[in-house]
Write a structure and sequence with these properties.
The protein has helices at about 35-40, 60-75, 85-90, 100-115, 155-165, 170-175, 180-200, 240, 275-280, and strands at about 5, 5-10, 25, 50-55, 80, 125, 135, 165-170, 205-210, 245-250, 255-260, 265-270, 290-295, 315-320. By secondary structure, it is of the alpha/beta class. Strand 3 (about 25), helix 1 (about 35-40) and strand 4 form a beta-alpha-beta unit.
Length: about 325
């Protein structure tokens, strides 16, 4: 990864000049970690026409989220953001004390003020190479329907999670206000988003962007299967088939890879925590910057035996 004038030029897929206008994506940059922030501050576009998708978990503190938005809107032609669970947390060290929907709406207004596209805005159309394609930033949350084997209800699944010691930090820091539960908030988001997707022109392909995976299959390789409870909703399982979809972008799992479902490309674009990057580097897969989504590049060679990623910081608390 070359270093020039104190910045890391890690967006280009090769040392040769980047083609003009690429749609790039990254998630789970977690700039609260100083090591991550250093890398993120070095991300540059390959050309003035590049767009950047931020697929959630930029940071936990509102001022840090805003600072990263400012950084990237100064560098990229367009920045598109969807919230992850970490942006929706109300941690004690954040002066912004808003919770739930009110926190999300506040972030949306800050983003709009900087020119960042959010799930509440008109969907932009990528007209560069590989286009035209509608970029649809989504916010569908999760509803505990990715339940582990042997459980039939949310209550049973959560009880099993507590027994096994794998409980997402969301249970303490992500508040659903004014909705009674996260499930209710998710159902409202799914209904709203499904209506917007149904109104799209069926002749124009889409890139669907959501922090949580839209289908359950990516969670099958989690080290702790019960963590899937906090990873999505079965209500979105056919969205990539409902609309003409060129690619689905997501994060949250910290398992960066490309998979295909129903002939549609799914890209998990996480940067992840510092300790996770070290583990991937040991298998010959260092973090190389945002992933190129369009135009679709040749798939890189993946080292055999890449590790399964733990979906928790420790056996007792999963932060993703």
């Amino acid at each position: 990864m070359p270093v020039r004038a104190g910045r890391l030029f890690n967006v280009s897929p090769a040392e040769s000049p980047a083609p003009p206008g690429r749609l790039m994506a990254v998630s789970d940059i977690h700039v609260g970690y100083s090591e991550n922030r250093l890398i993120v501050e070095g991300i540059e576009p390959g050309s003035p026409e590049d767009w950047l998708i931020l697929a959630g978990d930029v940071a936990e503190v509102a001022s840090e989220i805003e600072a990263i938005w400012r950084l990237f809107t100064e560098r990229f032609a367009k920045v598109i953001w969807v919230p992850g669970n970490h942006e929706l947390w109300t941690p004690k060290h954040d002066p912004l004390r808003l919770r739930g929907e009110a926190r999300y709406r506040h972030l949306v207004e800050v983003a709009r003020g900087l020119g960042v596209v959010t799930p509440e805005d008109p969907y932009p159309v990528w007209t560069g190479e590989g286009g035209p394609v509608v970029i649809a930033p989504l916010f569908a949350l999760y509803d505990y329907s990715f339940r582990p084997a042997g459980t039939a209800t949310k209550e049973q699944a959560l009880a099993l999670a507590r027994e096994t010691g794998v409980v997402c930090t969301d249970e303490w820091l992500l508040h659903p206000d004014p909705y009674p539960t996260i499930d209710d908030w998710s159902r409202a988001r799914v209904a709203y988003t499904a209506e917007r997707l149904a109104a799209l022109d069926p002749a124009v392909p889409t890139v669907l962007v959501n922090h949580w995976p839209l289908v359950r299959q990516p969670t099958d390789i989690l080290r702790y299967p019960t963590f899937a409870l906090w990873c999505g909703t079965t209500s979105t399982a056919d969205w990539h088939r409902r609309v003409r979809t060129a690619a689905v972008i997501y994060g949250h799992l910290h398992i960066p890879r490309t998979t295909w479902y129903d002939g549609v490309r799914f890209e998990e674009v996480s940067m992840g925590y510092p300790r996770e990057r070290i583990a991937w580097e040991a298998y010959g897969r260092p973090f190389a910057g945002p992933r190129q989504i369009l135009p679709y590049p040749p798939e890189p060679v993946v080292a055999e035996g890449a590790p399964r990623r733990a979906a928790s910081q420790s056996p007792s608390t999963a932060r993703h």
